[in-house]
Records
---
Amino acid sequence: MSDYNMQILICGGTGCKASESEEIRNVFNDLLGEYLLEDEVQVVTTGCFGFCEKGPIIKVLPDNTFYVHVTPADVDEIIREHLVKGRQVERLLYRDPHSHEVIHDSKGMDFYKKQIRIALRNCGFIDPENIEEYIARDGYLALGRCLSEMTPEGVIDEIKKSGLRGRGGAGFPTGLKWEITSRSVADQKYVVCNADEGDPGAFMDRSILEGDPHSVIEAMTICGYCIGADKGLVYIRAEYPLAIQRLKVALDQARAYGLLGRNILGSTFGFDIELRYGAGAFVCGEETALIHSMEGSRGEPTVKPPFPAESGYLGKPTNVNNVETFANIPVIINKGAAWFSAIGTEKSKGTKVFALAGKINNVGLIEVPMGTTLREVVFDIGGGIKGGKKFKSVQTGGPSGGMLTTASLDTPIDYENLQAAGTMMGSGGMIVMDEDDCMVAIAKYYLEFTLEESCGKCTPCRIGNKRLFEILEKITAGNGKEEDIDKLRMLSHVIKDASLCGLGQSSPNPVLSTLAHFEDEYLAHIKQGRCPAGKCKALLKYVVVEDKCTGCTLCFRTCPVGAITGERRAPHFIDQALCIKCGICFEKCKFDAIELA
Amino acid sequence: MEKITSLADLKRIKEQVQSKIKLREQSASAEKLVQIRVGMATCGIASGAKETMSFLIEETEHQAIDAVITQTGCMGYCYAEPTVEVTLPGRQPVIFGHVNRERAREIIDRYIIKGELIDGMIPVNFKTIDE
């Protein structure tokens, strides 16, 4: 084994690196040499601790001491006091912001962890293809308790008390949905799991199904018991082959163990689950369209009411919940509604899984309590913006959502606050944008997505979105007019008011939201013919800075369209009419003599 | 497989599985038993987790290291795929990111054999439901 007695972990996350963590490491290495401790103490740089606001951060092993805001000048004291004499350097320890008490002991060292994994509890821990590993971590225990110790009403009551709301986007209270479906009288009912995850940049449902398929199977079975259904269906996109395969393996194992089928765990209750594959149409995430698709009809939404709880799959009462919603259920039963509802905010209980993507350092899957602020998500857990660029906004809710800006950084994230900020929870994609992202182009991107995914049933959605898209194209091409802004707003409201389903009703949201927060960017495109982020090609203008140009002819020779003219050793000239804005001259110039005007 | 027919049955099986794991951890060879988990969700596999896993299996076999290597789902550190968690006997699990063949070799040679930590390990930054 290792000869080291102690290890110093230095956070090498981008935030801490920016605040001298590398320098701290160098000083440690130098001073450990001087103190002749280099064979006893190992210094290691780690990934991000997720506590960047207190960086640079250092952890000492084996005693788990956690030092914050460390500077290179503190290293000597840490070595003399802590490593040599075994005394913690009090002034560098973390102070609890409420009690102002210093945190000494290693058990209290979890304060920096801003995530709690409930829905993701088994992802990355168990082998998803081995049911025994699931059982070892309390798997199917909740089902067992429900069947042998609780009535369906009792279970529904517990879910209602927990405050769990739908994680697919709209946030409808789950317990209430179950109750309504349970009260519908019919000879046959169905439980449906909506695994038609379609927002660009969202992948939490896939990860849950790939990492912990049994949690969804167990929860669907519990739901079946509550609402009086003996059949469940998972509607999953065929684009998720690994999730499908793991689900199939899990279903087979659950049947082999008697956890699906007749007389589950010795009760009179029977339940089984089938898979239905979707072709990857975004609108099929809408529950009525999803049900039609499962029935073999076109995936088009229909008017509600009747709600699926009254008349859903094959005209029978159907309870539709999202993957993440289901994944929370077994924990609520095992830990109790009180435990669950202690986490989160007043009206939004528990946690939410987010898929962090875009211009952020720690791209990944996170699960935070409701009420965590956007700042904590982006700058602590996400490790801040890539390349030290400036934060501009976060897109949440996918093509149905909107932008959160710097003004919302300290807003606690929950259903109500996001809605008040003009966006929505959605399924949980968070796409982070920096100063280089053009908000008009982003709105155009989302509209392009909706255009392709609109089922075409309602005219405002089918044609209105096309017109919106054309106006945005005009603006990004530099041909926008001031009245276009009013047109965008008016048309957006018509589409929202006159579309049948959630897709159409929310499709103009990216336009309205970017207009609300970044109207100046639209105006810069229209009035000044300028794209502030430098993204819209048609508005870019490359020019030669005559003072810097040495007349080396490099740009002249590399320009693919011959737009650059000039004599050797004399400043060159770019013919704007010929220039295709490819940027090659800009990249090639060794003297920074080509600028973006 | 014998079917589980009651809650008591389920609890018994849970204990059996748990004690099987404990037994493995407390067996005569437990001092040497290394547990390795490889994140094998779509993201991990796309980044080369399958190759990493087969290399780990071959190499631990080749070096006669007593190791249990299993697949698991997404650990959430997509920016650092493939991710691998290593639990040495009596120590806290450690997660490593960007584990390609070279890094897998480094983990075996330095962490598993010598117990040295390696730059770039990922600190666990979440609480579990049992905390």
---
Amino acid sequence: MADLLNAFAIAGKAFFGFQAIFFALLAIGINVHFGYTGLLNFGQIAFAMLGGFGIAISVSQWGLNFWLGVVIGLVSAVVLALLLGLPTLRLRADYLAIVTIATAEGLRLVFRSVSATPVTGGTRGLSAFNGSFIDLAPWETQTRHRVLGTSWSGGELWVALVGWSLVALTSLLVWQLMRSPWGRVVKAIREDEDAVRALGKNVYAYKMQALVLGGIFGALGGMIYAIGTGSAIPDQYQNANTFLAYAALILGGAARVLGPVLGSMLLLFILQFADTLLRALIENGVIPEGLLSSTDVAQIRFVLVGIGLMLLLVFRPQGIFGDRREVMLDAR
Amino acid sequence: MPADPSAQGSHAAGSEEIAAARQAGQHRAAPQRLAQAALKDLPWEVGVAKPDAAVVLDGVTRTFGGLTAVSVDHLEIQRGGITGLIGPNGAGKTTLFNLLTGFDQPNTGTWSFDGRDLGKLSPHQVARLGVVRTFQLTKALSRLTVLQNMLLGAQGQRGESFLRALLPGIWRAQEKANTEKAMDLLQRFKLDAKKDDFAGTLSGGQRKLLEMARALMSDPKVVMLDEPMAGVNPALTQSLLGHVKDLREEGMTVIFVEHDMDVVRDISDWVVVMAAGKVIAEGPPESISQNQAVVDAYLGAHHDAPLTVEEEDRVLAEVQAEIALEESGTSSSSGVINSEGTSR
């Protein structure tokens, strides 16, 4: 029983921690791309990497101001979105998917390569760039506090506070955009581009705007992640994160403002909960060592999440916030 | 006029009302007569110049590999009239529509609308000039509500720009006006009760109505309808026909593709016939069924002409006489002839 409570507490920290913010921002961006506009962006993590490394390189390599680093990260995400969109958005949806997935993997390999090491720090990455941000905290960052049964440092709380504020602001932005005529055009593009063209809307421009906007959200997510971990390592930005963000989005409900937010929190909660509980059960001998060893837990928890997602798609395909009638229209 | 419900209603009413309705009908029909009258004295030949052409095509060709889908030397479309575009499957009607609305680019040729060259414009630019189209396979935006579908059709919306979308104060008044306009149109098309339903839940016929109503939200000058009556039940066909006639009465130029000849004869002022990418005939609807090129295109050059009533009677009489002759004899072949006779 104590194990269970402990697992709940630790998973609760994951529920509110910076990783949940990271996935929430990635998923909000994907929601703008895929949920509202119908763009298949399979390389969201590339935007996050540019965001994180935008700060890291600017501060630790070039000695620039932290906030200048933020601007550089956002601008490079915009440039990436334009580069990806210009050749592909006139074509069918599949082309963007191919190009984004290749770019995400390619960029990571370039960043970790030997020839890029003088700038990106190669496989070891960069660190010590978030000091001036942590110093902004209005409280002592070294002391630890008991929150909801687990221990948070002042710095962690500060990152979480800023991060969740950012999530709230982006969600508000998405909410306002999607109830405006702009959002109506974008949703119509998801349904049928040609019909929208025939009604006098410049579909290409709208798709580009949506791609840039979602990319900026991804970059913000990458910044929070880099600040939260205090380091930027290319291999942290594996493209598997893009698909975890997709999972979070579908769990919460696509094309819903709060879908990606709650989805990310729950995804992180489930992963952490399964991890802690399974380890405790193996230690106590409840689960015999022959069946499952503690080294397998890291993999098994993803299997559990996968099974959970399958059950979700069978019994609640619209996700937590979605509208079942809306999702079922696709079956026609 | 079994089609027009208002006319049926007026039969039941008093004689004064009938007179009034008839007058109103005449009044409503006046623009149609204008277009018809303007086209009446034109020769029935391909590429004939129209008195007031809205759309003019010159030397338009489009090939897909070795196949020439469209090859039109010269074609003019009369303003304010209903022009029917007919032809067998694969004649290039839809390709011509795609070219005219910027959805496809031609290999050669130019065309203009109101003297403005349309050749190099993209679809949304063509639509902004006032040339809107519908699609053969209806494109209702399934996961938008009927009302949202309608609002999408409105032009010059301030809230459709990214930055201004963030400031509702700028676009709220316009949105309200558009909503009122949309509700008026939905009422006209009898879809107002469905305004909050997803367009994906509508029936096929309702989607056709919605697509037409949505196109009208943009206040078009030219409406291009690609098979508006395909797959629609006869009652709804009549109501769609009424709506198409209304467009003409509002002064719009209508170009439509249709396969149902009764429909074409009923509403068009001018008919253009295409076959194998070329315009093979044009003229008023009554001229088309007499045109040998058209008959050949539809039925092949070697065909059996349909029987008139007199011919049918004569054939029937011949067969009966034959049967009578056979019955007087005792041939086994009589059964065969008999069965043929009864099946006719």
